[in-house]
Design a protein that fits this description.
Elements lengths: L3 H6 L7 E4 L3 E5 L9 E5 L11 H22 L4 E4 L15 E5 L17 H15 L2
Antiparallel strand pairs: 1-2, 2-3, 3-5, 4-5
Length: about 140
């Protein structure tokens, strides 16, 4: 078992656990982007969102919400980013699906690398059509 999150779940590696139930674990990130940065993971191993069964995702997102409601009191700010990096090109550093909850504060210097630039309307429409086709039964 080489997945660090699976090893944490198995008790092989210590972690600052915040919440745990039969299916889900919330823990503090050891490389926090901001004070109060925490992670929510399923206890079962699934590399990406697409590989994660819906039932597991429902359990995880329920805990994400529970943590999002508790974080403002604990971290002293109501503002946060909730992120799920999916795949290596999206900066997923641990191949075990997980959600980041990152408290945000005025002037924290945390940003995103994307620029808000108007898209090509034709390309947007083509992509929307491709998505609708992919969703069709």
């Amino acid at each position: 078992m080489s997945c660090i999150f699976c090893r944490i779940v198995a008790g092989e590696i210590p972690a600052e656990k915040v919440y745990e139930d039969d299916h889900t674990l919330a823990l503090m990130d050891i490389n926090p982007v901001a004070d109060g940065h925490l992670l929510v993971i399923p206890k079962s191993h699934h590399e990406t969102l697409a590989e994660t069964p819906e039932k597991v995702l429902h359990q995880v997102i329920s805990v994400v919400k529970k943590m999002a409601l508790a974080l403002p009191q604990a971290a002293g700010t109501e503002h946060m980013n909730i992120l799920q990096n999916n795949g290596k090109m999206a900066f997923q550093s641990v191949p075990h699906v997980h959600f980041h909850l990152i408290p945000r504060r005025e002037g924290d210097g945390i940003g995103f690398g994307w620029r808000l630039v108007p898209g090509n309307p034709q390309k947007i429409q083509q992509t929307a059509q491709a998505l609708r086709k992919a969703l069709a039964p």
